[in-house]
Specification:
Layout lengths: L7 E5 L5 H12 L9 H9 L3 E8 L2 E10 L3 E9 L8 H15 L4 E7 L3 H9 L3 E10 L3 E9 L19
Parallel strand pairs: 4-5
Antiparallel strand pairs: 1-2, 2-3, 3-4, 5-7, 6-7
The chain binds coenzyme A.
Length: 172
């Protein structure tokens, strides 16, 4: 029976998630390319203060994850994957919208990502979520596979940000 997406909830990653996240990256994203997102690398990303690792779980089982790095102006979506049993049920959209909203709140101007150029399903997914294709990078993956770079603008990088001043401790 297909899973109903309303049973899936989102939360931030915990250290114990690193092994499952790494295994999903190996099987769903990096297959045939070697395994660069080892459990240690995922755990490092989770500890990084500028990186958000978002988990979708259903009754305690991890069904999807996303890892996004937040810079000052730009964010980079490093990984996003949904277990095959839960694909096409809106889980990826929900996670990406959560990350987009967080980036918007953080004042990020644009989100960037690379994916395997032959991954047509994911290309369509990112296009459906407002991303545009910006460049092909031949040999990006271990010199043997082409990447496609995509981006989504969240605000005009030249736009003036609202005035903000550090509140004085006396006036608070
Ligand atoms: C790409 C991926 C994250 C999408 O997650 P998902 O939960 O299946 O996607 P959603 O159900 O939220 O889809 C939202 C919309 O994106 C589009 N879309 C998603 N997957 C698609 C596919 N395989 N083919 C065509 N369009 C697709 C559709 O417009 C879809 O809306 P609809 O179902 O109402 O038509 C998921 O397929 C996945 O984990 N793939 C393997 C790992 C991967 O490729 N990651 C991306 C590179 S890092």
């Amino acid at each position: 029976m297909p899973t109903r997406p309303q049973n899936v909830s989102l939360r931030l990653a915990r250290p114990g998630d690193a092994g499952v996240v790494a295994a999903l990256s190996r099987d769903l994203i990096e297959s045939g390319l070697g395994w660069s997102w080892s459990p240690e690398r995922v755990a490092r990303a989770m500890r990084d203060r500028n990186t958000v690792t978002l988990i979708a779980s259903e009754r305690g089982k991890l069904v999807a994850f996303g890892i996004m790095y937040f810079g000052d102006e730009h964010a980079h979506l490093s990984l996003l994957a949904v277990r095959p049993s839960h694909q096409r049920q809106g889980v990826g959209r929900r996670m990406l919208e959560w990350l987009l909203q967080s980036a918007l709140t953080a004042g990020i101007a644009s989100i960037h990502l690379e994916l395997r150029a032959a991954n047509h399903g994911a290309r369509r997914f990112y296009r459906a979520l407002g991303f545009v294709e910006t460049a092909y990078i031949p040999g990006y993956y271990q010199g043997k596979e082409m990447a496609l770079r995509m981006m989504r603008e969240l605000r005009d990088p030249r736009a003036r940000l609202p005035d903000w001043r550090l509140p004085s401790p006396k006036s608070s």
